[in-house]
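Lecture 7 notes: from sequence to structure.
We start with the chain below.
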Amino acid sequence: MLVYVTVGSTGFDALVSAVCRKDFFQSLADRGFRKLAVQYGSSDGVFELPKTASELFGVSVEGFDYTRWPQRYVEQADLIICHAGTGSILEALHAGKPAIAVPNHELMDGHQSEICQELAAAEYLLVSEPGQLVDAIDSGRYLELVPYPHADPRPIGEILDEESSRKK
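Predicted structure tokens for the same chain:
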């Protein structure tokens, strides 16, 4: 089973540091995860794995700054841990993957917290601070999330035409 961690197009040192800790790997292993892919963006300076194989608890790790094919990881993931940017969140939810969103409070105006709190209130995802990721995984609540509803795939023009013809 694969956990995909993404920080998006920038960096998020606190999130990357949190997923490099020994207790994080133990939590993953205890829940049956055997692979971890970390897209760390510009946080490459804090992407430091535990020093010994025993501290990885049998979890194999792939780390990279950016990828041309993030969808590949999203599709393969059994759990997605992402910064709370709208694009990353919606990518996980539209793929039908359980997600834990981690707001980056260092960004302006707290918009990430607002977005993910609304989605968490509807039980579409979990919200965690970097230091509470182990608790979020250990709780298993990511397995109980409500599936995100799919949007009508028709082009907006077609939908508007249909609606306007009903009113005539």
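Points to note: The chain has a mean pLDDT of 89. DSSP finds seven helices and six strands in the chain.
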